[in-house]
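Session log. Operator J.P. requested a structure for one protein chain; no other inputs attached. Running the standard single-chain path with token output.
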Amino acid sequence: MAVETGKIERAPWIFIIPFVIVLMVLGTIWTCILPSNMTLFYNPGDVNCSMEFTAMPYLTILLGIGFSYLARKKARAQTLAYIYAATIVCTYYLGYGTYDMPAGIPAGRWTNPTESRAWLQWFMAPPEDVGPQILSGGVPVQWGAWIPTIIYWWALFAMFGLFMLSISSIWRRQWMDVEKVPFPTTMAVHQIIEQTTGKTKRPYLIGVVLGLGFQFPVYLTTVFPWFPDIFGWRVNTACYGAGWITSDSALYAIAGLGYFSKNPALGALFYMAPLGTLLSGTVFTAAFFILTQIAYVMGYYTDIMNLPGCGRAECGTSSYVWGAPFKWSIVTNMGGGLGLVTSYIFLNRRYLVSTLKEAFSETGKESQQDQVHYRTIYLLLAGSFITIVALLLMIGLSLVNAVLAPIMTFVFYFATMFVFSRVGYNAIGLGAYGLYYLRAVWPELPTNRTPDYVLTITLMRQAGSDGFSKGWGGGLASSFQGYKMASITNASSRNVFQIMLVTALLAPFVWWITFLWLSYTIGLTRLGVYEANTGVARDIFRYADPSNTWSGIDPQGMSGGPWVPNLVAGIIIIWLLSFMHARYVWWPLDQYGFILAYCSRGFSEGIWTMIVAAWILKALTLKIGGSKLYESTGVPMATGFLLGYALSILAGGFISGIRFFIPF
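Structure written below.
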């Protein structure tokens, strides 16, 4: 079936708005009715921890093409790009993280009523006599009591969505037209459109079969005890596909060996990353093994031989993440992230100045019919920023913390995008790595908690420095990916901007309405998202305790000693790598491979195996057949695998949802 690519059309609002509403309603119900052990990996939104894999766009693009075929019409690539843009924004509200933040704060009315009473303004959660009714269900929703809560949390998350959209819009031209940042996650979905322009390539079909043949048996292994464990998923393997070294293994003596990834979908994404980034990741991985072994011999990591492979990654002060001398999470996730943002803005300062000049000029390059003028973008940036600060001041944050919250959220998630946009992996997120700046606000941790402290820590720990599905970071990830799809399909970036703006306003509102209706109808305690690992039942204020070493605001406590030198070292390393990579063509190593090799979640998910495998396979492909073989065989097979992988996740989630109503 052909796909029409040439004609620029108006955004199909008659379709898009109902589409967003239906997708949010069905997607929210889908996630809620999954068993608690399935919400992380088989929801229709954001799955698999730092892989942040989004399966739903694959389905909506397939359905868009399929319905066009049934209607005997050509599916326009531009229209499919608009569907993708709306879907990807919705997707990050349909993942597992939404039920920890924002749902967890109103849930404090029944999970921790004493602290909820002390820290929350009346409009942040329903009255104490109303909230608990949601647990057992079977009663109508008391909308009158919930409306102030819905309005506040909708406004805060919607404004962060617009704030992030404005940031991606500022950098759109540089990333899409100049640097042509690859975005493997978007390229994989775009291949579905590519494969419909003519005869589907055999490598693509082979990839689809391999993806289905891998992931669907993994699902069956997880759900049905009688199904054979073909890939060893039940043995020393985390749900995201990382196996760990046990103490009886012959490889246990290797100090740097903890986890190893068994998930080929990660390798398929990495295969589409720049070869230089994969080479850098491989070189820095080799350096990690050497440096760790040397450090162990010198007396560091003293307990590492008493820890299983999973513990070696991030458990305590003998782990790779927190242990001296390197304290890689501080070097990479904290200092490295700050270094990425500051070095990039410095190196591209002329571009940023040019956007400001265009914003204040009467006409500019971006004032064409299919573009958005920078004046509009900067007004959106200023308006959303001011509104966010006002909303945070309303709940008790100090002026300093209210102003710093959106700024540091931008720094954290902008840093994540540099790696995610190149390899499809959130190397910097998922953890308490965005709160270090608060030590400048609180040099000494308070002995008496205040609403300012509790809510700043809670919001920044959960929504301001974690995975994309917590809401704030998803706005940046989705808008960049939406612009990428517009770029490669020649869709109007103005239309995509408008669609993502409307979706960012609509999606969180529909989510709240659907979540409350379902919970009051069925009973929240019957839903998997209640007891899930990131579910509503967890005490949302658990990190806002100064005595909790792992709150995120105490890097010294987490790492067992001074941490600022490691932070500074991370900034310097990234600045040096950025300068060398930008200045000298012959310099082989880039800053993104460094982050990928030494990031916290990378250790916990054992991604080094897939970095090395992807580098070897891509290098061999280019060596044997050049870019022709890579484009005709390598990319179709990798993206086909990801389509099969996505369909398996969606099929598994759908089957698990059916089991909620019909146990089998």
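Operator note: Residues 202-325+562-641 form one domain.
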